[in-house]
Structure formats: C-alpha cells, structure tokens
Write a sequence for this structure.
C-alpha cells in the first residue's frame, strides 16, 4: 500500500517543475534579442514507482510512478549548423576584406579623372608632336620635359599609394593577430569556467553561449577547426565532462585551459619591400612558445596577407599590380631611350659660358629607373631641355645664335611613332593597350571579388537564418509554452488541493459516522 502522503509528493514535484519551466520560458523571452543566446529547455523524466530498483518487487498491482524529475536544462542547438556557419564566416570575411581593398585600389586608377595616367601619357606624346613642328623652340622643349615629369610623378604617386595600402594591410595583420590571441585566451578561460560549473551536474548554458560567440568571431578572422573531447573526469552524476580544443590551419591553438599566444614580429618581406631597402620589414604571425609560423589559410587575416604579398595571377595583391606597372615603365624607358639616343641634341651655352655641342647618346629617362618608384628623367634632361634629341642629324649654330642645320626626323619618325606601335618590346603591345588591359584585369578582379562576396553573404544569411530557426527564441512558441506550463502549474496545485481535501476526510472525519 502506498504512503498516505505519496500523492502530495507527486503533486509537489509537478508544481515545482512547472514553476521552473515558467521561469525558464521567462528567461528565454528576456533574452530573445540577446546576441548569441541559445534557446533553453528542461529535460524531464518520470520517477519510477517505489521498489523498481530493488531485487524483490512488491506483489501489489497498479502501482503508480513517483511524478516527474528534472534531469537538466539543455540548449536547443545544432552543432552541424554551427560548423557550417563558421566555415561560411571564414569565406565571407575573406571576400569582404578583399573586395573593400580592391575597390580602393581600383579608385586609384580612375581614368575618368583628367589627371589619370592615360591622360598624362597622352599629354606627353602630344607635346612631342608639338616639338616636331618646331624643334628649336625652347618653350616647347620645356613643355616636353614638364609633361615627362608629370608622367614620372604620376607613377611615383601610384607607388606611394601602393606602399601605404600595403602597410595598412600589414597593420591589420598585426592587430588582428593580437585579437586572435586574445580570443584564444578568452576561450580557454571559458573552458575552465564551464568545466568547473558542470562538475555540479548542471549545464553551463550561458557560458557556452559566450564561448560560441567567440568561436564565431574567431572563424571570421582565421580558418579554424574545433571539437569537444572527453576530459577523462566525471561530474557528481558520473557523466564524463567535455572540453573544447581549437586548431588554426591544422596547428594546435586552444587545449582546454591553455591557449598559445600569437605575436607579430617584423621579419617578413614581400616583393615591394625586398626591392626597396628603405622600407621597414613586415609583420609575420608566430606562436610565442616555439616561434613557429601561424598557418593562416582563410578568413580576414588571410585576405590581408594576400593583398599585402600576392604576386601571381591566382593571388593578385599589391606586389602583382605594381609589377604590372613596372613592366610598363621598363618597356617605356628601354625603348624610348634606345630611340632617343640615336637623335641629336641642340647645342647651347650655359650661364657659366660652357658650350655643349650637338651630340647623340643622351638618354631621355634614367636608364636605372625601371620601376614605378625609381622612374625618372635623366640628369641631362633635367639639367637642360636642349638635351631633348629631336634631330636626325647634327645641329649647328652660327655666331649669331641661329641654327643652321637640324631636322625633326628623330622625334617625328621614331619617338612619336613609338606611341603608335602595337608591338612595343617587353610588353608586346602598345603602351595604351597594355595599360588598358591592366585596368581591365583589375576591374575584372574587383568584379570577381564582389560576386564572390555576394554569393558568400547569401549562403551565410541562409545558414544563419537556419541556425536561428533552431537555436533562436520564438516569442510565439514561448508564449504558447507559458500557457501550457501555467495550466500544468494550476493542475498540480489542484491535485494538492484535492489531496488536502482527501486527507481532511481521512484525518478529521473517518470513524465519526453519525456525528
């Protein structure tokens, strides 16, 4: 026979479980807009009838259970969706950062601007056309030199912007490397806090939400892999506790309560830095414990590195774009000088009384300036515009200062025609076509990055919405649960009232028949 007060204990269990379910529904509703919050629910189980766990069962029939018991408060979360979202975060952040930087680089070469390179180069060759009309005019010669200086200044400006952008990407590598290190430390600290809390047999759901947010942020910066593994220790209920390990590009990063510190050291170089000794070394991310390189294979940090160091068709970064312009400069300097050195300069007498004869072999551009950062006019041209070799024969000047001989064959038949050639050596194209092809390639890379970004955002939005449908708080569902738990609470209270009435009859009125 059951205990007289057994029914009260069953109702009491139901009452307290319903009350806690109401509290949990309120907790869910209160955090409906909390970033990273995961919907929680009670896991309950029926209490078996007395004697179920004994060797000899009671012989009486129709025994009822002991009510309900709370096993744990669980999170409604899909770990597979979490991994998909984080993998997509890695790809999306890579293309987001790349698209933004490439759009800036594209803006440098805005050919709609009157001061664009195309316009500047055209202006230079147009000044040569004017020179062919009057090769002895000092003002026209000065205009040729000024146009050439404007062209070299334009290339210097591009180089300066490339270097500035390169160091901006480099600073982001260092800053985000430190942030990654901080995230690892926070994850390891949360691992310890979760482990200690769950020793009691409860789930550290809110702490796990904080850790999941950190994993999301970390996945946007670098390519990570992670898993929960058994710790070899159990909680008070005998269940094995788990801990989280994180790897970056296959290298160990977080192992339970420890994380490896990442430091940024100025030891790296790329093709821009190595070609210019005056530039400072770049940052390289390394693990502080063994000085090994951090294998960055994805995420925003990989985007910074690719833009800073990329010098191939498959990985187009700042060194790649600079190298393309370097090729244009090398072709222009080499071929223009070759033709210019066959022409004759004007004879002149400087302010000190030194007379310079008409001569050949004078380079127009500095032969050593074959890159956009070293591109410049030769010392002779900078000293005096008379060194512009426009004539195809020696130029003689009479005693009164008039030119007796000379022509425009060099400037007209060779220098001007160089701009019209479609097979200029080194670039195997015309200057204008080569530059336009460069602009087209850059625009194509920008368009590709933007397209990839839109695709990744679409995938990320879909996965995020799918994860939110599982883990997010639905106010409609919570309100429905509130009504359900309220009815359960009222019903349990009614059971207690009914049991109280039955006990009143048993205690106060049984054996008092007729009174």
């Amino acid at each position: 026979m059951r205990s007289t007060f057994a029914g009260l204990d069953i109702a009491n269990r139901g009452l307290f479980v319903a009350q806690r379910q109401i509290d949990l529904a309120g907790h869910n509703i209160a955090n409906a807009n909390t970033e990273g919050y995961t919907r929680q629910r009670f896991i309950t189980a029926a209490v078996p009838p007395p004697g179920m766990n004994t060797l000899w069962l009671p012989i009486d029939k129709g025994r009822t259970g002991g009510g309900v018991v709370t096993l744990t408060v669980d999170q409604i979360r899909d770990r597979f969706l979490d991994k998909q979202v984080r993998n997509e975060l890695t790809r999306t952040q890579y293309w987001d950062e790349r698209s933004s930087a490439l759009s800036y680089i594209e803006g440098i070469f805005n050919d709609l601007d009157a001061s664009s390179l195309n316009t500047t180069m055209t202006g230079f060759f147009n000044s040569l056309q004017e020179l062919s009309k009057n090769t002895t005019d000092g003002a026209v010669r000065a205009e040729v030199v000024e146009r050439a200086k404007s062209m070299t200044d334009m290339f210097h400006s591009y180089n300066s912007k490339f270097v500035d952008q390169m160091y901006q990407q480099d600073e982001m590598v260092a800053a985000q490397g430190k942030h990654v290190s901080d995230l690892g430390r926070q994850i390891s600290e949360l691992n310890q806090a979760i482990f200690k809390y769950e020793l009691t047999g409860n789930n550290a759901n809110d702490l796990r939400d904080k850790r999941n947010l950190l994993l999301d942020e970390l996945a946007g910066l670098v390519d990570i892999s992670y898993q929960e593994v058994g710790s070899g220790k159990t909680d008070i209920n005998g269940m094995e506790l788990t801990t989280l390990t994180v790897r970056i590009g296959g290298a160990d990063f977080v192992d339970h309560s420890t994380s490896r510190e990442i430091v940024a050291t100025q030891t790296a170089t790329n093709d821009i830095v190595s070609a210019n000794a005056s530039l400072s070394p770049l940052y390289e991310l390394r693990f502080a414990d063994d000085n090994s390189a951090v294998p960055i294979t994805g995420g925003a940090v990989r985007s910074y590195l690719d833009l800073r160091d990329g010098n191939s068709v498959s990985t187009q970064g700042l060194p790649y774009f600079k190298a393309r312009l370097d090729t244009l400069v090398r072709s222009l300097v080499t071929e223009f000088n070759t033709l210019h050195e066959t022409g004759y300069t004007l004879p002149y007498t400087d302010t000190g009384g030194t007379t310079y004869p008409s001569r050949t072999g004078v380079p127009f551009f500095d032969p050593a300036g074959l890159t956009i950062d070293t591109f410049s006019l030769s010392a002779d041209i900078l000293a005096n515009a008379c060194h512009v070799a426009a004539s195809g024969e020696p130029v003689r000047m009479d005693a009164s200062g008039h030119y007796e001989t000379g022509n425009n064959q060099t400037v007209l038949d060779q220098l001007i025609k160089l701009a019209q050639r479609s097979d200029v050596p080194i670039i195997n194209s015309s200057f204008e076509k080569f530059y336009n092809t460069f602009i087209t390639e850059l625009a194509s890379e920008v368009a590709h990055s933007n397209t990839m970004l839109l695709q990744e955002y679409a995938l990320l939005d879909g996965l995020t919405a799918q994860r939110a449908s599982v883990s997010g708080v639905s106010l409609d569902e919570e309100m429905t649960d509130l009504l359900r738990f309220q009815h359960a609470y009222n019903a349990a209270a009614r059971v207690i009232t009914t049991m109280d009435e039955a006990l009143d009859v048993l205690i106060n009125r049984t054996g008092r028949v007729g009174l």
